[in-house]
Amino acid sequence: MNRERATRVVTEPRSSVEVTGEHSQFRLDLERIRFSPYFSRLSAVTQVIAQPGAGPLIHNRLTHSIKVTAVARAIAVGLTDASSPARDLALEHGCDAVVVQAAASAHDFGHPPFGHLGERVLDRLARESLGIADGFEGNAQTYRIITVLDVCEAAPRGLNLTAAVRSAVAKYPWTRFVDAAEFGDGLPRGLRRVDGGVEVVKFSAYDLDADDLVAARRGLPHMEQSLECSIMDIADDIAYSIHDVDDFYRAGLLSHGAVAREFRGWIEGSGQLRGLADAELESRTAPPGAALEQLRRKFGRSDPWVADDDAFADAVEVVAEDLVDGLLATPFDGSIASERSLSSFTNRWIGHLQTSVVPAPAHVARSGLVTLDRRAWHEVEILKFVHRHFILDRADIAMYQRGLSRVLTRAVKGLAAWVTDDYDRHRVPQRLKELVDIAADGYARLRAAKPEGIPIPEASDVLRLGVGRGVVDYVASLSDDQALAVSEAIDGRPDRLWDIGQNL
Hints:
Elements: H1 16-19, H2 25-34, H3 37-41, H4 51-54, H5 61-80, H6 87-93, H7 97-106, H8 115-129, H9 138-149, H10 163-169, E1 191-194, E2 197-200, H11 210-216, H12 227-250, H13 256-274, H14 278-282, H15 290-302, H16 309-324, H17 336-354, E3 357-359, E4 370-372, H18 374-392, H19 395-419, H20 430-449, H21 462-476, H22 480-490, H23 497-500
Helix pairs in contact: 2-7, 5-7, 5-12, 7-10, 7-12, 8-19, 10-12, 12-17, 12-18, 13-15, 13-16, 16-18, 19-21, 19-22, 20-21
């Protein structure tokens, strides 16, 4: 074992079991993650569709994480196989299947209630209402949980995971205030150019936790994923591109007619569609296939390193044949035949995609050390397009999400007001008090250290920022149901008061 990869923040005595080789340091990390309450919580956090409205067979964040872990392990094992063309790359950069499993199991710890909607709402509230400059980001929250908020017996804070696992969790290894000058012509995923500058959309550490991320990644290429992180990232893409289709098919939300019309419109009219201006493709009177044509153009702008018109056309044909003319042609009715058809579709695609991972071209900013081959890359993006275009833009889902955003807004603003209420703050939930104290202590240490490239808080702002970050940490750690109950209780509605119980 590379001892640097196995370094922990707090040195731990090796148990007799570890000495005999029955458990590696990485195996211990995996066990800590899977026994974490943050791991269990994922069973009550929405993936895309909330389970109460769609049934118990719909994926949540826990079932998603379990499947990402399975896919990631299969990829890691395949890359290190003696017959793999990527074996030399795997051996050079480190490709431990247990590290990959650990990172995949933990990668969604930071997801707040209500899926990606909750992420956007908490980011807006953190920055605009609470004055926290780096806001909220699910990946950064994950890193904060494993290094600061979760607990284990071996360290005062965090799970005290090895450097390899902490690095493998960091999909976007920078903070929100990364210097744009550090990038060349190409930008990695998670960043985009806006008005001559760079907007950081995704990042893996808040200012408070940046020093830990730097220490974990010591020796790795600047701002590039570790190989194990790249594998986990690809597995995440593969898993949700398939099981989102699985969910929407089960729930009866994917209209065969609408999907077929779009795919057939592009296949039969791609020549005409290519002649239309961007504005014409976006209009309400745009012909079928216009959304797929917009996607093809976007690939050419964003990912010229892999985008290819022939590969795009082939991917559209393959998905149309297998999904549109195959799976969706027969509505899901809960029968054994329906389950077998869906299982066959899922297994076939997972098997194909997880064996399509190849070394990435050198010096491509938007790819990790490994990527999907050109064919599979386009297929995954087309599958992701299906759920984005035909589900996430639906008016009924948008209406529901607007209601959920108000739930989180009430919770954050109500708790922040309570923590700062001179007359009633002594009755704040104990865990919330502790999270505020942890955050305030972090800002005080940040002020004392004065690291370069990170906004340094004024002394008068330390407590205010601690309250803001502590409240966000608290709300982000709730399940969907807990967030609803807390919001209703703060709003003076007693209906679900006892649902909260000791979980406060």
